[in-house]
Amino acid sequence: MQAPAQSWHGWTVVLRRQPARMVDGQPQGGYTDAFELICCDCGDDPDLDYRDVSPQLQQVRGPYPIAAGIAAYDKHVRHHQRASHLSQPPAAGRSA
């Protein structure tokens, strides 16, 4: 599950420590104690600061404490896997 036009360094979804802020695509001012979920498949850009993405992407991003972030990551990846599976045509000789 990789959209080449949207992937970033070979991944599409990542749980990372939330930077205090992003400037020109680089973390500045250290990191917070929270984690955020970045999903390129949803249109997010890891180089953007939390405040610079849409409210919909902010909901995906979080922030999360680590345990909740891991659960959100797992749920989000499974959501994309199901969507990808449903969008694939059935194999020849097999019904949907």
List the helices and strands and how they pair.
Layout: E1 13-23, E2 26-39, H1 55-61, H2 66-87
Antiparallel strand pairs: 1-2
Task: Summarize the structure in short.
It contains two helices and two strands; from the N terminus they run E-E-H-H. It has 96 residues and is an alpha+beta fold. The protein is elongated and about 55 Å long.
Tell me the total number of β-strands.
2
> With helices defined by DSSP (H or I, 4 residues minimum), what is the helix count?
2
Largest beta sheet: strand ordering: 1-2
Mean pLDDT equals 84
Order of helices and strands: EEHH
Structural class: alpha+beta
What percentage of amino acids are in beta strands?
A: 25-35%
Task: List its traits.
2 helices, alpha+beta, two-stranded antiparallel sheet
Plain-language structure description:
This protein is α+β, with helices and mostly antiparallel strands and 96 residues long. It has one domain (13-87). It has helices at residues 55-61, 66-87, and strands spanning 13-23, 26-39. A two-stranded antiparallel ribbon has the order 1-2.
